[in-house]
Structures are given as C-alpha cells and as structure tokens.
Amino acid sequence: MKAVIVSNCNAKAYYNYLAALFPDWDTRYVLKTEADAWIASGHEKFLEFLSEVDVFIGLPESHEKLFPKHLNKAAVQVLLPSFIFMGGRPDCVLLAGITSATRVGVIHSRIAAAAFVAGKSVEEAAALYCARHFEALGYFDSYAGSRRQLLDSYRPFGVDLEEEFEAWRGYGDFMYTPSHPQTRLLFDVLHKALAGKGIVTGREPGFVAQSRAGFEDYLARGIIWPVYPEIAERLALSNCKTRWRSSAAKGAGTEFDLRVMLERSYASFAARPDARRRITVALGGKEKLRELAGEQPAV
Length: 299
Description:
The longest helix has 14 residues, at about 185-195. The protein is α/β, with parallel strands linked by helices and about 300 residues long. It is globular, with a radius of gyration of 21 Å. It has helices at about 10-20, 30-40, 45-50, 60-65, 110-115, 120-125, 130-135, 140-155, 160-170, 185-195, 205-215, 230-235, 260-270, 275-280, 285-290, and strands at about 1-5, 25-30, 55-60, 75-80, 90-95, 105-110, 175, 180, 245, 255. The strands form 4 sheets. It has a 4-stranded parallel beta sheet, sandwiched between helices. It has a two-stranded antiparallel sheet with strand order 5-6. The mean pLDDT is about 95. α1 (about 10-20) links the parallel β1 (about 1-5) and β2. About 45% of the residues lie in helices and about 10% in strands. α5 (about 110-115) crosses α14 (about 275-280) and α5 (about 110-115) packs across α15 (about 285-290). It is built from 15 helices and 10 strands. This is Polysaccharide biosynthesis enzyme WcbI domain-containing protein.
C-alpha cells in the first residue's frame, strides 16, 4: 500500500500514525506549500507517486488541486481540514506580514493590535487584559461556539468528533496555539477518519491505545500562546499554559510575560508602514477596533 499525506503542521502527526499502525505501507508526507511548489514545477517523482497511491490523506484544498489531474482516481480519499480551536484563546488573530511576538509566524493579540492602532501606551494596553474587558468582548462565552465550529468543520468529510471532544475536554487545555493541538488529538482524528473508511478494521484496541500513548507530541516544542488566567478560571480549564513561549524547536524556547508580548507586538506593528490598515481590516473594521481597545462598550 502506498499513502501520501499533504497537509500543514499536522502532516507529521498523520505520518507517525500510519508508521505506527501500518509500518508496511510506503507512506510519505509533504507540507502543502511544498506540494504546491512541486505541482507548479512539475516535480516528476512526486507526480508519479501521486498517480500510484492507494490512500490520500490531506487538506481539502490540496485535494482539489491534485484530483483528478494528478491523483490516482482509485485512491481512498481521506480529507481532513486544519484543526482550529479558538476555545480558550479568543483573543488570537493572524496578521499576515507582521511577525508575532513569539518570533515565529503571524499570531497576535486582538487587544494588543487594537490598542496600538488606538494610540495607547503599553501600560494602557496591559490594563485591558482583565476580566471586565474580557467579559465585555464576549471572550468568556466563546468556548461553546469554538467547539461547534471545530466539530462542524470535520462533519462534511464524514468525521464525527463529538465523543472524542468530550474526552479531550478532560485534558483541560489541549492546545498550544489555536491551530496546534496536542498530537494525540490528531491521532484520534485520523483514526476516526480511517475507521469510517474501513481501513483500521482488525487493529487490536490495546495496540492502538499503546501507539497513542507513545505518540510523539512534537507540537509541544513549537510556540505557545497562553490561556489568559481570567479565561482559564472562568472556563475552569486545567493544565493551562500561562506564559508566552518562543519555539523550542527553532530556538531556545524562552518564556515571556504580558509586558514583553506587548512590547514585541508594538515593535512589529511599528515596523510595518501599513500595519494600521492591515489590523483594522483583520479585526473587522474601525468600530470593532474601538471595542477591542476599550474605547466604547462592546455590544
């Protein structure tokens, strides 16, 4: 059996799953960005492998590019969207082109970005990270909606994660960033998806559980965006990360606090001449920006 995985940071987890449960398969994985480049350049070995695979696992958008022109039409197709759960981190936002305070990626704080555009000082911005402001912004009510969005994102592809989510909830905070879960969750996602295709039939439950228990949690070495203490307390979330951390996979993995996050964020914003425009658009317009900056009541 030949399998190919085309995904984002989840790709390695899916590969590790297949390597553990199907060691005899010829399994290969590639990040979406690299796959896109290989398709554009006509990478012969990649395209040849695609034409021969028995199982395709990957992002729906990657599948659209590969099928039916390049992918074996007889391949079992397992489509898995990105794992996004904002739950305990409703303040996070991606700002394309603006480096994160974590020094990797473009993840930022909505409040910090809004405060910068509003002309607030770091001290004034720091004062906004409090229960009263989080309440006004609806941050305490976001968990249920985020849960629904996550589960709904998988349902169109035949993957029902209702039971799995309830088990994950028992771990407390199971994310490192809104798009980086503990990899055992990705193990569960792929296992459920393959079970729905009849592929994991016959695997001993004990062996599956043992493989899951020893699953490499490589995303734990990446950046960490914490759950703010007030949110963790209100949601009764245990095992929360309480400080920001740079990547331990690409650097020292240094932890830092709110003030450092704000100082670094402000420096990144100031370095982009178009930062104010980008932030205003990303946050949903001037009215929403004022709410986030604490300049008018949130509705």
